[in-house]
Give the backbone structure.
Amino acid sequence: MPRYEYATIAFDTTAFLIRSKLDHGRFNEKLNEYGQDGWELVNVFDMNRGEGVTFEVVAVFKRPMVS
């Protein structure tokens, strides 16, 4: 049975009243960096504060552990 290691990275957003903005270019760069290092994206979710405004986006990665 394969064993995995996991990593998470968080991206801050800029909030404007009831909207949030994510730097998509930086987000994509990081996803590609992790992919080149053998990490597989498992999940992405947002962290919210009052009124549902996103303040952070979290990406979760996994890759097989090297014995």
Observations:
- The chain has one domain: 4-64.
